[in-house]
Known about the structure:
The chain contains 15 helices and ten strands. The chain is of the alpha/beta class. The protein folds into two domains: 7-50, Winged helix-like DNA-binding domain superfamily/Winged helix DNA-binding domain (Arc Repressor Mutant, subunit A, Orthogonal Bundle); 66-322, Rossmann fold.
Amino acid sequence: MARKPSKNRVNVLADVAEMYFxxxxxxxEIAKKVGVTRSMVSRMLTEAREQGIVxxxxxxxxxxxxxxxxxxxxxxxxxxxxxxxxxxxxxxxYLTHLGRVGAKAVHSHLKDDIVVGTAWGxxxxxxxxxxxxxxxxxxxxxxxxxxxxERSLEIDGHELVHYLVTKLNGEGYFLNVPxxxxxxxxxxSLMSVQSVCETMEMMKECDLGLFGIGSxxxxxxxxxxxxxxVLDEMKGLTIxxxxxxxxxxxxxxxxxxxxxxxxxxxxTISKRNLIKIPTxxxxxxxxxxxxxxxxxxxxxxxxxxxxDDITAAEVLRLNQETIxx
Length: 325
């Protein structure tokens, strides 16, 4: 564990950082002024960032596509659509941008005395990390899906709920059970556990739902990449017509529930309770999620979509192509 710098060291690092970032001096000029080498100035600037003395914030101004937003709202009877222009080349940058836009959309719905239900996944993780909000009063955060296991702790529902509880100064309701169990009878048994019962009941009180939209395409599936479902299980879901999921609830291209035997072994919010949540924000994008997004829209799993313009255009195109099939 790195040692905390002394107060004098902090002041020196702050002075160097101010000269570089605020006064616009070059590293060579700072080195001459402070009496150290240029490479030492570079190391000091790095240390200043690592110690939190320098905090860099990039306030990217996204351009939004009103035409696509309006068309999505019209075709799917949505409460809102937030569609920004442009897809970065790398997946990491794309996820960061999508998370920032998602965070702005989430922020606009947060208020005191709200009950927020959240799922899991990489997109929600990116969204919550970009969320800038002051603590709220009397806020409850509910985990809507059982745990994914040790291999995916950072994106697991339990961790995301804990993150929001800390961020919003709220009260957490956790679902401390696996997402998939061995048989339907185990689901019935777990439902009788008091803490599980309390969380399941609180799901019915949610004012706001925050979801990623899962895909059955292997390169885009959190279930598969996290090792929660193996290849044969993914193929089995596809054979049953599944194209995606919201909160672990699988559906086909028309938004109809599918893989019912699989779902009977899952610990998650029911679709009946999910669609009763007044505002259901789905944050997703990319070529591998187009079918999943369309299914989620048609099945009314979400009524607010956050995505990019390329994905949105493809979703609308596919909707027209398959509307009569």
